[in-house]
User: What shape does this take?
Amino acid sequence: MSNRHEQESITSRAIAASVLETLRDGHWRAYNGPKSEQLTGWLQSATGLQHIRLCSSGTIAVELALRALHLKSTDEVILSGYDFPGNFRAVEDAGGKIVLCDPAPECGWVLTPERLEQSYAPEFRAVVVSHLHGQLAPMASILDWANSRNVVVIEDACQAQGAMVDGKQAGAWGHLSTYSFGGSKLVSAGRGGAVLTNDSLYAQRMRVYCERGNDAFAMSEIQSALVLPQCERLADDHAMRLQSASQLYSALAKYRWLQCVPLPQQDSPAFYKFGILVAAEQMDSDRRDSMVTRLAKLGIEAGAGFMGFANRSSKRYRANHSLEVSKRLASNTLLIHHSHLLDPATGANSIDQVANAFEQLETELSL
Ligand SMILES: Cc1ncc(COP(=O)(O)O)c(C=O)c1O
Assistant: This one.
């Protein structure tokens, strides 16, 4: 058995044991319990943040973070024109006005302080900054900008738990930050999330908002039991995924119709999905989807990126530029799922298989 495979079985056994403990000690049917306390403690020590609110999903985590601000109807919240769809709705539901901002064209999928400054208006109250598709936002410079403009940063680290940005955990930078433990995420209980902050007032406001006789947006004790053992192995898994991502980056570099955003040199990213951009001239509305379909037939778990917000009704947002970058990201992003970077079943990566599939794609689609 390979070391990796052994490690995987150990983790699966640890997850099973953790859940069994919760079943045996009866806490599975309580509102609170020791596993949730342990997870809270684990996140506190990983991030150095004081207030951790476990909650039902990453989507709700972003909304709770926004609700902690007690937005006024004139307050504007900046979102990237290319982001997780729920973040748009979260701003609307929390009562803020949406301002869309393009990522910088050379920077892939994340916001930069230069772009934010270009969009600046005195009504700005907060910005949601998401780490996406293996790429990390430049948090130190975004925080500098935000503090100089008195803007609150909500760091959406739902795709990037355990990543390191300039020596500090993703999720430890924002005035408020969010994690997801949902779906196929790198740490998953099927559902779940967390909001993190050092600010007691924000923590208090979230507590009051959630309290309806009990916590209305809670994560369960069994979910915490599932998540805890996965947190322990995150750093090792990220290191292996980064190795696979570097191989994939090199294997795909020869295709002129593809652009992989350069891997960060100093940071330690988290590849929930490996993002690739298909060159604009190769794209029409159906082309990327036919690529995804073809890749699936070749056994590759691939998908399209987010749809982005630039095509939503302009009554729902304001933007002071044309959002061309966001539109291009929405139509040209192709994602390779993290199972190819590190297969939990085999403990191996399948980079050669992905590279061969792209070779075939080039021939078949005459790219
Ligand atoms: C950037 C980002 N934010 C928030 C979420 C929402 O997380 P959840 O699926 O747990 O609601 C996701 C989910 O994919 C995401 O990618």
